[in-house]
């Protein structure tokens, strides 16, 4: 048996396979979740995993989960991220997931979701905002973090991505150092994620998932703003897909 978790995110799609083969991969979602889904199906088939076979169980989650028409189960992002986060961090704690389009805070107690919160999609506290700002500065996302670590924070106060980008453009026009602008951009996102997170009573165990989950710099800044240690997770980008694959297995028992 193979158990496949597919997380169709707004920016990237993640796949985790459990069973005889253990594998995972990520790819851009692109403009069409449906086309991405077909590409995933073909890629799995090349690896000998036929999603239409009775020996394969699939759970779909994420922004474009309804596009996965071959899924055996379609499960919400909160449930899948909580299950994946529980696997990464244990039965008790908080999961902060900074995605491309939204940020989620999930509180897990004794392996069950006790509370959760999601930001407004128009807010600038997401990974997409960082990508837009990195593109504006002509650098990669990793270079943005590297520059930010060497810079001094310039304040970016706007809650809207469009207006925040205008602030960055003004700083560029003033000839401010890219390192300082980068520091301001990362600080701005961390501040917005922290504000969202502090609307809940956070436990001491907190992990970061999503596209920024591997960044020790971002988790350091976020920890300072929350006042508690937030741990990076190397596999955190796949938390939703991992949770989906585990749920596929649990539902098949």
State the CATH topology of the domain at 2-78 and 239-251: Nucleotidyltransferase, domain 5
As laid out across the biggest beta sheet, the strand order is: 3-2-1-4-5
CATH superfamily of the domain at 2-78 and 239-251: ATPase, nucleotide binding domain
Q: How many strands, which pairing sense, and closed or not: the largest β-sheet?
A: 5 strands, mixed
Give the number of DSSP strands: 10
Descriptive account of the structure:
The mean pLDDT is 92. This protein starts with a strand and ends with a helix. Helix 7 links the parallel strand 9 and strand 10 (230-231). The strands form 2 sheets. The protein has a 5-stranded mixed β-sheet with strand order 3-2-1-4-5. A 5-stranded mixed β-sheet has the order 8-7-6-9-10, with helices on both faces. 47% of the residues are buried. It has a domain at 2-78 and 239-251: 2-Layer Sandwich (Nucleotidyltransferase, domain 5), CATH 3.30.420.40. It is α/β, with parallel strands linked by helices and 253 residues long. It has helices at 33-46, 77-89, 127-137, 141-150, 161-173, 178-197, 216-226, 239-251, and strands at 2-8, 12-19, 23-28, 56-61, 73-74, 93-98, 103-109, 112-118, 206-210, 230-231.
């Amino acid at each position: 048996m193979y158990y496949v978790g597919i997380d169709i995110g707004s920016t990237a799609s993640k796949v985790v396979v459990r069973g005889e083969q253990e594998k995972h991969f990520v790819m851009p979602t692109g403009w069409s979740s449906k086309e991405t889904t077909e590409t995933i199906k073909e890629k799995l088939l090349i690896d000998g995993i036929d999603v239409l076979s009775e020996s394969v169980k699939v759970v779909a989650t994420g922004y474009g989960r309804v596009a996965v028409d071959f899924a055996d189960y379609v499960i919400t992002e909160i449930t899948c991220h909580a299950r994946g986060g529980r696997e990464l961090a244990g039965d008790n704690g908080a999961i902060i997931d900074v995605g491309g389009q939204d940020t989620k805070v999930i509180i897990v107690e004794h392996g069950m979701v006790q509370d959760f919160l999601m930001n407004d999609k128009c807010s600038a506290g997401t990974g997409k905002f960082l990508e837009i700002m990195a593109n504006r500065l002509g650098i990669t996302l990793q270079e943005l973090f590297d520059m930010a670590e060497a810079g001094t924070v310039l304040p970016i106060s706007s809650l809207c991505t469009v207006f925040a980008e205008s602030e960055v453009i003004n700083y560029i026009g003033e000839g401010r150092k890219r390192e300082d602008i980068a520091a301001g951009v990362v600080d701005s996102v961390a501040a917005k994620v922290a504000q969202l997170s502090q609307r809940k009573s956070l436990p001491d165990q907190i992990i970061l998932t999503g596209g920024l989950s591997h960044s020790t710099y971002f988790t350091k800044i976020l920890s300072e703003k929350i006042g508690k240690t937030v741990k990076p997770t190397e596999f955190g980008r796949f938390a939703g897909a991992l949770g989906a694959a585990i749920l596929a297995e649990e539902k098949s028992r």
